[in-house]
Amino acid sequence: SAHGFTALDAEALKSWMRAQIAGGAAGSVCVILHGVAPDTVFEEASPNCLARRYLDAGGRLVWAGEVPFLLRGRSDGGHDRNQDSGSSEAVLDIPVRWDWEMPGPPSVTEAGKAWGLKTPDEALRCVDASCVTEVLAGVGPFASTWLKTYARDVPGSGFLRFRGGAFKADMADELGTAALHGLPERAVLSSDGPDAPAPEGE
């Protein structure tokens, strides 16, 4: 892509995350589009899943689309849906809040502008601002685009929730800019679940 991302299928993503954890994940970034994490990295709804261990190791996981860790992609191209948003909290330690709880439309914060955010957020899903490390868009006590850092010795790492709604193609440049904010130049990747194309380049 224009931002240098490489698409990985589910098995390649598992191998890549394991390698990042073993060698130090700081400075790496993975993007999950459309809200479906493959079962190779989202094996269970707990902090023990590979995706969470990648965050704990200092990686950055950017998520766009459906509620984080609500959908688990299968090798046959389908997906399993958890019955509620509790799986999101089980993995990320952050409960999901809903759009009707927000007092008004969210706006991009000064921090969000620094990360390259430009357009208003739909905010169909949100979290309590007190639960995250940095609020990039939100309103009142709620955050709709946010960063939660798990490896405290790696500032800027962690889970980056990109907008609280569906991902659309015209958001790609904005997402790419935010995904790479503050990171050194190095190999990065994008995963779109088990149907993602095979790896290209490095």
Terminal residue distance: 13 Å
Could you give the order of the helices and strands?
A: EHEEHEEEHEEHEEEEHE
Number of alpha- plus pi-helical segments: 5
Structural class: alpha/beta
What does the largest sheet look like?
A: 10 strands, mixed
Instruction: Report the uncertain regions.
Output: 193-202
Helix content: 10-25%
> Average pLDDT across residues?
85
Large-scale geometry: globular
Count every beta strand, where a strand is a DSSP E run of 2 or more residues. Answer: 13
Radius of gyration: 15 Å
Which range does the strand content fall in? Answer: 25-35%
Q: How would you sum up this structure, described in words?
A:
With 202 residues, this protein is α/β, with parallel strands linked by helices. It has helices at residues 10-23, 50-56, 86-92, 110-114, 172-180; strands at residues 5-7, 29-32, 36-38, 60-64, 71-73, 79-81, 97-98, 107-108, 125-128, 134-139, 142-148, 158-162, 188-191. Strand 10 (134-139) and strand 11 (142-148) form a beta hairpin. The longest helix is centred in the N-terminal third of the chain and has 14 residues, at 10-23. It starts with a strand and ends in an 11-residue tail after the last strand.
